[in-house]
Every structure is written in structure tokens, then in C-alpha cells.
Amino acid sequence: MRTILKLHRSLQTELPDSTHSDSFDIAKFIPSLHKEEWLELNNRIFKNHPDQGNWAMADLENRIKESWFDADGFYIAVANRKMIGFCWVKIHHDLVNQDPVGEIYVMGVDPTSTVKGIGTALGATALDYMVGKHLNSAMLYVDADNEAGLALYKKLGFS
Hints:
Elements: E1 4-10, E2 25-28, H1 31-45, H2 57-64, E3 74-79, E4 82-92, E5 101-109, H3 118-132, E6 137-143, H4 147-155
Parallel strand pairs: 5-6
Antiparallel strand pairs: 1-6, 2-3, 3-4, 4-5
Pfam families: Acetyltransf_1 (PF00583)
GO molecular function: acyltransferase activity, transferring groups other than amino-acyl groups
Domain N-acetyltransferase: 24-159
């Protein structure tokens, strides 16, 4: 049976450092330039995932058309002109009796990449973005058996 955890963190406490080695760059996702490469990487990273894997271009384009989509909150990591990771933020503005909340909607790192620190840098950049949007808290969903993801999210301050 699949167990999904919902993790939270305050954005009013110290954030992880978003500086990273010069072995990769972090850029904003530009749909007209990055959609196809992102889709290929997403499907490779999540090939066995029941929700995030096996997306078609229509799945990505439908998300981009959502009112919550903001390309400024969608980051990619690039090394040698190749996308090696990404972190996509979704802001929930429509919560009843609650302030808006930032969500790490999906984050992935190329499993064949030998570059270190990609997930930490992307996650920290996403948290910085949320703070810049004046949000007080962040959340995410993760499978309970995703040990690497859980370790990364703990390092980013989620619990």
C-alpha cells in the first residue's frame, strides 16, 4: 500500500543556503525553450511513479495553463547545457481561513548525474522564492518510502 506524507516547514525560520558549486547553474524554466527537455527528464526520473511518471506534453501544457502556474517559481539546474534537475513551486492562494502556502510541487534530479548538491540548491532556491512572495509556510507531498527525498526534505527543514 502506498503511503504519502505531507511535510511542512516555516519560512520564518532560518533557510538553507542556496549557494552551490559552479558545476551547475540554476535558471528559470522557460516553457517555449524547456518543455520538451523537461518532459523527457521528468519521465526518466519518475518512470515508475504512479502520478508523476509517463506524462505526455498535454499533461505539462495543462499544468502551465492552470491559474497557479508561475514560471518564475519553476527552476531548472543545468550542467554542460543539459538539464539535470528541476524544482517547481505551486502557491495555494485559495485555502479557506488560511494564509497562502507555498508547495514544492515536484522536484527531481537526473539519476545519471554525478553532480552533487543539485536537490539542495534547487530546494533552497524554491524556498527563497516563497519568502520573496511573502509566504509564511511551505509544504510538500512525498512517498513514505522515498528515502532520498525524505533525507533531502529534512535537510531543507521540512518535518
